[in-house]
Amino acid sequence: VDNIHSPYGVVTVVCEGDNMPKLNGSNYVTYNPAEYELKEVLENGGNMTLTSDLTLTKDFNVPAGTNATIDLDGNTLTVKSTNSVRGNLAIDNGDVVIDVDGSGDVNVAFAAYNGSTVDLSGANIQVADKSAAVYVPKNGEAVINVDNTTMTVGNGGHGIFVPQGAKDLKINFTNSIITGSPYALYLMQTN
User: Fold this and answer.
1) Residue 42, phi then psi, degrees to nearest 5
2) Secondary structure of 114-169 in the HEC alphabet?
3) 82 close to 53: Cβ distance less than 8 angstroms
4) Do residues 137 and 115 touch, judged by C-beta distance below 8 A?
5) In 3D, which of 107, 109, 67, 63 has the Cα closest to residue 89?
């Protein structure tokens, strides 16, 4: 299924035979080429411009040394998965809805690991209850740039979440607003 490409949106594949994969008891598998393209950009680097709204449902990894840029072009990116950022990730020019599916107290959209940079620019970000846009793990070393962005955080959610302190964390806010939950910006003492 990974080698199906279509400029026309979602492709439905019908599988035949007794040993074919089933989804919800059906032989139909739904494939979204835009999510596949996004996966390629996140995992291998490069640029992607959205041409329509997109929901990210699979967990992805931005490896160290990788530069991935997503230009929303006025569209909405809904993030329902946890994504590891070890390289550089830039998201700009549109709406981002963070509503991560999970059973934890806080469900993270982008985990920024050592040596990573997360740039959010020209975005309107909505963070749902019990979700976090960017998380930095204990003793983390990361750069988070928030430029010309409004981040509205739901009850019990976090825009930027650093619960166990960071070793070398730089957060740069320029012409931006973070509002909502009293824990919208949650930073424990850093080393």
Assistant:
1) -65, -40
2) CCEEEEEEEEEEEECCCEEEEECCCCEEEEEEEECCEEEECCCCEEEEECCCEEEE
3) no
4) no
5) 67
Residue written as token pair 């931005």:
62
pLDDT in tens, 112-157: 999 999 999 999 999 999 899 999 988 889 999 999 999 999 988 8
Quote the CA–CA distance of 100 and 113 in Å, as a whole number: 18
pTM: 0.81
Distance CA 46, CA 86 (A): 15
Residue 39 DSSP symbol: H
- Give 44-72 pLDDT, tens digit per residue: 999 999 999 999 888 899 999 999 999 99
| Residues 56, 38 contacting (CB under 8 angstroms) | yes
Given this model, what pLDDT does residue 26 score? 52
CA-wise closest residue to 140 among 162, 157, 158, 173? 162
Strands 28-31 and 116-127: unpaired
Residue 19 makes CB contacts below 8 A (sequence gap 6+) with none
